[in-house]
Amino acid sequence: MATERLSMRRVKEILRLREQGRTVREVARSLGVSVGSVSKTTSRAKAVGLSWAVAQALKESEIEQRLRGRRAALSSSDENPRTPHGSRPRPPGRFALRHEASSCRR
Predict the structure, then answer these.
(1) For residues 56 and 41, what is the distance between their CA atoms, to the nearest angstrom?
(2) pLDDT number for residue 4
(3) Is the distance from CB of 19 to CB of 52 less than 8 angstroms?
(4) Domain ranges, residue 21
(5) What is the pLDDT of residue 69?
(6) Strand ranges (E), 1-106
(7) Which mean pLDDT values do the consecutive 10-residue runs of the chain (106 residues) have?
(8) Structural domain contains residue 2
């Protein structure tokens, strides 16, 4: 089962608490997220040069784009509708068309 993404508010809070010198475990415990989530978020932010000071000046969409890339920014827009689990709704395929045709013959 896929896990839910952290909100940008939580990402900013992780960066803020880590900037204050809190350990990964302390941050995870205080925010109610896994140690892995805190560690992964911290390492991604470090890789793209995103600190708490920089994050304060950015919009949430800009932070998301930096951390998760162009694809994440597109998926959060209203232009590309997504299902709750993140994939695009599929048009009816051959199976659906075949099923409709067979049910009409009865």
Answers:
(1) 16
(2) 77
(3) yes
(4) 8-104
(5) 78
(6) none
(7) 78 94 96 94 92 90 84 49 58 57 56
(8) no
* Domain assignment of residue 18, yes or no: yes
Strand, helix or coil for residue 58: coil
Q: Look up residue 6 and give its two tokens.
A: 């952290």
The answer to whether the beta carbons of residues 66 and 31 sit under 8 Å apart is no
* Cβ atoms 39, 15 nearer than 8 A: no
SS3 category, 82: coil
Domain count, the chain: 1
Q: Could you tell me if residue 1 is inside a domain?
A: no
Between CA 85 and CA 4 the distance in angstroms is 9
Rounded CA gap, 32 and 30, in Å?
6
CA-to-CA separations, 100 to 18, 41, 89, 90, 103, in angstroms, rounded: 56, 47, 19, 16, 5
Q: How many helices (H) and strands (E) does the chain have?
A: 7, 0
pTM recorded for the entire structure:
0.62
